[in-house]
Sequence to fold (201 residues):
Amino acid sequence: MKKVLALAFLSCGSLASLSTRPVFAQTAPPAQLVQSCEACHGKGGGGSPEQDVPRLNGQQKGYLLMRLREFLDPTRGTPHANRMMWPNAARISDDQAAALADYFSRQPATPAGGFGPLAQKGAEIFQHGDKPDIPACSACHGQNGEGAGDAPRLAGQKEGYLTGQLQALSMTARVADPMNHHAWDMSMDQIKAVSAYLAHD
Fold:
């Protein structure tokens, strides 16, 4: 009897822990839905001419799924993103969101392309931080800006997008802790330097 109860307890515990984790669909997203995303984000999510529209290709799957759901909360995005994304995110089911996240995460990622003195300064901040208040970005976003889990890939993004997001985070125009605390202490010169290092335009 004790063994049966123990097994039942373990089964319930396993199910409970699984229910709190993102479930990623294994099926491909509807072609029409992919095309809708690509209309703004470019083929395969590889970018558009607009500086404030992010690349999706090679982005962390967990981050993409999280952001699709965050757009339902207007405090979690910039005004431009909310205006464009809220009506779209509201129409996407959980299964479709998971399928989209999986699809775009599998597309070949755009590499970082920053060079020159400003990018070199940005590399120093990204890799080592700037004492006493700015931690190393690489601690969460990976040594090469590749991201991990809910921490997004930053390498290869548009420079204008990165700069705009860091500005929004620094002013809490976009709510995303702990990034708000990290960005509060960044000067505009530091924001531009980090963006120049990571960007690929």
Observations:
- The chain has two domains: 31-105, 117-198.
